[in-house]
Amino acid sequence: MGVSRTFLRRGFVGLFLLLMQASAIADIVVPERIAWDRTPIKLLLSVDQECMIRFPGAIKIGLPSRLQPLLRAQSVDGTLYLLAHEPFEAARVMVRDIASGRIYLLDISASTEEGQSNPIEVTLPNTPNGVRNSSSPEATEASIPPTYGYVALTRFAAQQLYAPARLLHDRPGIIRVPIRRDSMPLVRGGNIEATPLVAWRAGNLYLTAVKLTNRSNQPQILDPRDLRGTWLIATFQHNRLLPAGDEADTTAVYLISAWPFAVAK
Fold first, then answer.
1. Which structural domain, as residue segments, surrounds residue 57?
2. Which of 82, 83, 85, 225 is the most exposed, having the fewest neighbouring CB atoms within 10 Å of its CB?
3. Do 155 and 248 reside in the same domain of the chain?
4. For residue range 34-69, what is the model confidence (pLDDT) as tens digits?
């Protein structure tokens, strides 16, 4: 009888430990892996529920101004933490890999209904867990493009606009990128019309040349502090515009940013 009770007691203890182990396994959260193939990643957030997205490397996020009051976005060591404060419709968000300059696109929306719950791990195609092989040809020193400082990039843009065609040369590592040429209120005050002309990418930097035209009857002094947007540096070809109609009523500004013009403006 004592043996039977001991056996039953041990059986209950074993069952209890088994249930505890099963519960611990059930609590493990398995990340959802998404291979980046240039298709925007659709992400539905639940309001007041944080979502975690892990990228192959350290990243920066470009959050549109209209989303900033609605969405908290923090990045730490390649992991992006998103928390929606209230519902909003789908919006395109750009995430940039700091080391490679690669751009990821997220189509983010938020709802009071249940949304993404598991963490997301973004991987690169043909690489385990998105890790690039450092011994591959892409990582060799010969394949690394040269880097350019603010002065060199600004000088390059000015030459593209003002130098004779015979003096224009492509620079390795500076790549032309598309840009919309719609006029926009880049300069506060409403007297100056801004029209993007051409844009380039050089490593992790974006360079944009914008035409500025005075539309008022008064001369205008240009001040970088009057520019809308997030710019690392802004350089005017001329810092004074004569009244509209004068041959000197137009100039250019060269803008360098960490994001494409459409995000940084």
1. 32-130
2. 225
3. yes
4. 888 888 999 999 999 999 999 998 899 988 888 989
Q: What is the pTM of this model?
A: 0.51
Rounded to 5°, angle at Cα 96 from 94 and 102: 110
Residue 198 CA to residue 19 CA, distance in Å, equals 64
Do 102 and 204 share a domain, yes or no?
no
Dihedral, 66, 175, 78, 40 alpha carbons, nearest 10: 60
Shared domain for 108 and 162, answered yes or no, is no
CB atoms within 10 A of CB 10: 10
User: Which helix (H) or strand (E) covers residue 15, if one does?
Assistant: helix 2-27
Residue 138 lies in a domain: no
Strand order in the sheet with 205-214: 174-177, 192-202, 205-214, 250-257, 233-236
Q: Is residue 23 included in any domain, yes or no? A: no
Q: Assess whether 119 and 161 both reside in one domain.
A: no
Q: What is the pLDDT of residues 176-216, one digit of tens each?
A: 888 888 898 899 987 899 999 999 998 888 999 999 999 99
Given a contact cutoff of 8 angstroms between Cβ atoms, the answer to whether 60 and 98 are in contact is yes
For β-strands 174-177 and 192-202, DSSP reports them as antiparallel
d(Cα 253, Cα 6) in Å, to the nearest integer? 86
Q: Are residues 87 and 173 in the same domain?
A: no
Residue 141 lies in a domain: no
Contact 206, 148 (CB under 8 A): no
Q: Which H/E stretch holds residue 199?
A: strand 192-202
